[in-house]
Structure formats: structure tokens, C-alpha cells
Design goal:
It is found in: Cytoplasm. 29% of the residues lie in helices and 40% in strands. By secondary structure, the protein is of the alpha+beta class. The structure holds coenzyme A (COA).
Length: 146
Amino acid sequence: MFLIRKMTEEDVQSVSEIESVCFSDPWSFDTIKEGQKNRFDTWLVLLEGDTVIGFLILRIIAFEGELLRIALRPEYRGRGLAKKLMDQLVEYSIHNSVKSLFLEVRNSNETARNLYSSYGFIETGIRKNYYKNPQEDAVVMCRDLT
Ligand SMILES: CC(C)(COP(=O)(O)OP(=O)(O)OC[C@H]1O[C@@H](n2cnc3c(N)ncnc32)[C@H](O)[C@@H]1OP(=O)(O)O)[C@@H](O)C(=O)NCCC(=O)NCCS
């Protein structure tokens, strides 16, 4: 049984573990703990039972939403679970009067780029050498919600 809800401080450790197995440049425990207090950001966690298996972060500023992170524990991938989080992203954004969504993604991250394309995100630009560890360009993708 899967459930999506807003993240609480009790989830910080789980999200931190997911970060460390999903990203080559993971955010630290303290960054996550502080970050989830940012009033512009919404952190959603996906649970199977009591276990946090994935999360998503949305930043909303002046009717524009930015998908900052989406990640699933590796053993849960390829089962459509990221789509549950993406569905929530779109629904929550529309409910909060977001007019457009954008994100950056590593050029080499074909899985994520496919996921975003399937949700109507269109590639609109490149940010050269945007990422570190390893250094890589970011592809900017946008979706209009109006
Ligand atoms: C990106 C990520 C969240 C996708 O999670 P997932 O649960 O495996 O995705 P889903 O099973 O819901 O698949 C959704 C779509 O993603 C794409 N996708 C998933 N796995 C893929 C793969 N191995 N190769 C190519 N595309 C893939 C497809 O478009 C798929 O839709 P489809 O099944 O209709 O073809 C997951 O791979 C992940 O956590 N990666 C590490 C963190 C990351 O890179 N996050 C993105 C940048 S912040």
C-alpha cells in the first residue's frame, strides 16, 4: 500500500539515506533538515507502509514552480512509482495556482529526462557546467500549466 504525504522532521533521516544512494552530490542531513523548513518549498514523501521509499521537492515562487528533486530508492524503481509523485506534483501545483513548472536535469540522466518528457516537459535550454561531482551540463525543461 503506497501513500504520499508531506514530509515531517521524523523523515529527515530516511530522506537523507535516499539522497546518499541516489545522487553523486547528495545533500547532507543538515541541509535536508534546514531545507524542509523553507516556506517556499514543499517536500512530499512516498511511503510503502511506514517506510519512506521516495521523495519530491517543489519550490513555488510567484506562480512558478521548480521541481528541485525527485528520487526513489533503487529497489523500488521501474514500477511506475515516480509517476505517483509526478501526478502529485502536477495536481498540487495546479491547486496552488502555479502557471508553469521548470526543472534542471543532468544531461546524461536519460531516465529522468524520459520521465519529465512523458509529463509534458519540453527542453528549453542548457546551463553549461551546472553540476559538479561530476561536472556536467544541465538541461532546462518547462511545462506550461495554463
Ligand atoms: C528518475 C527516477 C525518480 C524514476 O523513478 P522510477 O520509479 O524508476 O520511474 P517510473 O517507474 O515511475 O517510470 C516513469 C518513467 O520514467 C522513465 N523511465 C523509468 N525507468 C527508465 C529507464 N530505465 N530508462 C529510461 N527511461 C526510464 C520512463 O519514461 C517511465 O515511463 P514508462 O514506464 O511509461 O516508459 C529514479 O530513476 C531515480 O530515483 N533516479 C535517481 C535520482 C534522479 O536521478 N532523480 C532525477 C533528478 S532530481
